């Protein structure tokens, strides 16, 4: 018992904190709180008026998009100011297309591509500076909220969102192999996922899909690949929820030669050379 | 709850929330961000704050949610500009609690090992551990903030302690 008490005391000493927020930080926080307080009622009035107007004129299915955050808002929520601006620019494509599969409705909200579009850089950008960013929302079909990130049930159902290229096997060319990653959060019961990977614009002339579904990786249980035509389709027998969006990319931005080179590097990686230091 | 009340929450619980954010985020910049975002979110959710019913737990649960939501952002920033924040904050207290210089050195080392190992735990164990020891919340408060049963909190704390104890025994 004494040993237990000693260990408890040690844990308390090691993990307790005497750190305090600086006066400047608290001052900055109080200013920001004041700003939010000033802005809040105005924003609320505008939102209420907008929703009321939209309810009157829009059909039910279109109305759903007004309940979702825009790609710009999603980027802002993730703390990426530069990306939020990129989603607000002419280069970004606003899509707002929903498809329901299984228990979930997946909505592709928007996509944008280019260099230096994000505040956050990854090492992959040193090699391929062009990146694509896409925002997908995931909602439960029955309207019940998705688990909050602090909920115990969060993460019990995993999701994957990945671009797929027509003519390329989905299990070979996907978000994992294209130096991809994602960030996500839950807002008002809807999950928003921002995915990023090497730019897919160079494939625009071939046809590019965005797969969204449950699960953790892309395999032939989820999608079927037609070796002759290169078409990718949802596997009708899949137990996972899964949908495919056709991405409306600008064909003018395709670059066949660059795409070939990229695929060649991706599918036939050079074995690491042995240097004198390795021996 | 109006802005004045949020201000008073900053005054009353700012230190506890900040200490927790610092442990979670591991560096000052991320901790400063997380701390501010926590109170800004609390402002948004101010109607849900019941001042008579564990506001500290509510604030800490917001910090946990924001941390989980944005941990990729924080992790990336940590990779880009690692700070290697040294948590030497309890040194003074250790000096008073211990008698000889040797004991102080040993205690410091043991505390550093525990902090280091606690940081390596996965979030399911790490977060309740910091809520308990850093934010000084009770098991009941942690359960309510994380929306999990008290038994689960106890079992996670037990697992975390066991791991740390095993490490200390080897050490």
Helices and strands in order, then pairings?
The complex is a heterodimer of chains A (279) and B (171).
Chain A: H1 2-15, H2 23-57, H3 60-67, H4 71-77, H5 81-87, E1 93-101, E2 104-115, E3 130-140, E4 159-165, E5 181-187, E6 190-198, E7 208-214, E8 223-225, E9 232-234, E10 242-246, H6 256-267
Antiparallel strand pairs in A: 1-2, 2-3, 3-6, 4-7, 5-6, 7-10, 8-9
Chain B: H1 3-25, H2 28-44, H3 55-80, H4 91-97, H5 101-120, H6 123-133, H7 139-146, H8 150-170
Helix pairs in contact in B: 1-2, 1-3, 2-3, 3-7, 5-8, 6-8, 7-8
Describe the fold and architecture.
The complex is a heterodimer of chains A (279) and B (171). Chain A is built from six helices and ten strands; from the N terminus they run αααααββββββββββα. Helices cover 30% and strands 26% of the residues of chain A. Chain A has 279 residues and is α+β, with helices and mostly antiparallel strands. Chain A folds into two domains: 35 residues; 202 residues, no CATH class. Chain B is mostly helical and 171 residues long. Chain B folds into two domains: 85 residues, Rna Polymerase Sigma Factor, Chain: A, CATH 1.10.1740; 84 residues, Winged helix-like DNA-binding domain superfamily/Winged helix DNA-binding domain (Arc Repressor Mutant, subunit A, Orthogonal Bundle), CATH 1.10.10.10. In chain B, helix 1 runs antiparallel to helix 2 and helix 2 packs across helix 3. Chain B is globular, with a radius of gyration of 17 Å. The interface between A and B is large, with 41 and 59 residues.
Which tags fit this structure?
heterodimer, A: 279 residues, alpha+beta, 3-stranded antiparallel β-sheet, 6 helices, B: 171 residues, mainly alpha, Rna Polymerase Sigma Factor, Chain: A, Arc Repressor Mutant, subunit A
